[in-house]
Design a protein that fits this description.
The protein is an all-alpha fold. The protein has helices at 2-11, 24-32, 42-51, 58-68, 78-98, 108-117, 125-134, 145-164, 177-185; strands spanning 106-107, 142-143.
């Protein structure tokens, strides 16, 4: 019956048509979408990133998804998945460029230069020092690539939360405790 076809069609995975269905990005999307839902969830993205050498907690992976998905579903569709890949490629290229010693770690000075280059020109050395300490659990005074990516995502989320409470772009804001909790929760 027609109603059974409609019900069946609703449960089938929907993949939006793409002009380059054989593209490497599309193939990676399909391979990552293990449950064939047409969307990449946090665990699927976490597995894909780990296979590529980027090991993140599920919380960090979900933050990456929130940064790139405006749908508030906790998942990525193909275009959002491509945006995540581009974001990670840009951060990795920046990391490699500013890793002057080529040791696979960024010093605080290198982090400061990389952040200024990434558009955080108004962040001062004290703020960078605090952020580095928060994302450097072994206190080596250096950030590995995954630590730098996590810190960059934190800063991007912080900037978005700050901007939401600073509509005039004055660089200052006043918050009550509830607003502070809301803003802080958007950074995680």
């Amino acid at each position: 019956p027609p109603s059974a076809l409609i019900a069946s069609a609703r449960t089938m995975a929907y993949y939006p048509p793409t002009p380059t269905a054989a593209s490497p990005e599309w193939q990676q999307f399909l391979a990552t979408d293990v449950n064939q839902s047409g969307e990449i969830d946090g665990q699927e993205l976490q597995r894909m990133l780990a296979a590529g050498g980027l090991v993140f907690s599920l919380q960090t992976v979900m933050q990456l998804i929130r940064l790139h998905s405006s749908r508030d579903t906790g998942t990525l569709v193909f275009d959002e998945f491509k945006a995540v890949q581009q974001f990670l490629a840009n951060i990795q290229a920046s990391f490699q460029y500013f890793d002057a010693s080529r040791n696979g770690k960024l010093s605080k000075t290198e982090v400061l230069h990389a952040l200024h280059h990434a558009g955080f020109g108004n962040i001062d050395e004290g703020a960078v020092k605090s952020a580095c300490m928060a994302f450097d659990p072994d206190r080596s005074n250096n950030l590995s690539l995954d630590q730098y990516i996590a810190m960059s995502m934190f800063l991007l989320c912080s900037k978005r939360a700050f901007d939401a409470f600073d509509p005039q772009h004055s660089g200052r804001m006043t918050l009550d405790f509830n607003q502070f909790v809301y803003a802080a929760s958007k950074t995680r």
